[in-house]
Amino acid sequence: MPALPPLAALLAAVQAVVPPPDLGRQAIRIGVLTDLSGPWAGMSGAGSIAAAQLAIDDCLAAECRGLRVELLSADHQESPSRAVEIARGWFARDGVVAIADLTVSAVALAVQRVAAAAGRITLASGPATTRLTNEECSPTGFHWMFDADAVARGAVAALDRRGRGRRWFLVTVDDPFGRSLEGAAVRAIARTGGRLAGRFRHPADATDFSAALLAAQASRADFIGLANGARNAVDAIEQAREFGITDGGQVIVPLLLFLDDLDALGLPAAQGSLLVTGFYWDLDPAARAWAGSFLARTGRMPTMVHAGVYSSVRHLLRAIAASGRTDGPGIARAMHRIAIDDPILRHATIRPDGLVVHDLFLARVKAPRDSHQRWDSLAIERVIPAREAFAPPERSTCPLLPGRAAKLSRRGPP
Description:
By secondary structure, the protein is of the alpha/beta class. The protein is built from 15 helices and 14 strands.
């Protein structure tokens, strides 16, 4: 019998039958691997650890009653090699069944490879890369909350429906993260019949965005899309306000901005900007109740990454409780089988490639006069249905999708 290729071996592993353990005696260990000290610490970091613990506590008080669950956490320091070392130690030494958060795309990809080989679960809610559920998809890997394609596609499609113009100028951080956001935006602009009026790429350590913003202003584009994040996006928005760009009618559209960024930026600088988010604390009564619990623990309102960590860990634990399994393939099957039911996601389903699709929201940053408290930053302008926000499954290159494995085996690996 010929040797199975790596992906086929993983597919076969998913079908393996492992006797269920005694969940009353075995500790279920979950790891949160996050950025505790770098530029993404505000939107993930300590808040992700708190969100995971909140998911554990809520599940233990309900459908997970009687389970023993322990939480581990570590700072990957934006280093894939360090993240892999931590993950391997957790799997071999501590028996960790799943790793959550995985902010930073390179970290998420590296850890997902190690977890797939070990038959363990990954719950990515912080990275933007679409590779996690395309060419590097895993039968035990899940991508929660958002990816680069969804936020860019959602923003462009939602704004096209508003009929407010179709000319875009993109300001992009020149790294894999920024280029992936830019590529997704360019495809979405073309798909809606829009026009790319120009683009400007800047280094990751840029602090002066005058050249980029003046070029965007001169292009007369309707929308200035920021394909960057964290400090880059905050600085660009601040400087756009100083230059009076938005006073001329152009709209700033940060393709990936989080609640902690808005808190640091302040509403006077950010007001009127449009963005796409997968969760907002003031969305509805269920979201407000959950966010209140998070606020009580952390002193801050949750970002959509924190919300994604909660949702993914809660769903993992519900799958373990429902199936009695703690092996990765068994948990993964149960996660695909049971419905996502939490205060975070709306109309959510899990595709065979591990992508969690759900409604997204086009939001406008409020003017200071319209805000009533510190975290009252956004007004939801439109619900973006899951089918519109996320790329359709036929565009995925993941061999786990129905019919894809046979087609790819005849062609060879992707």
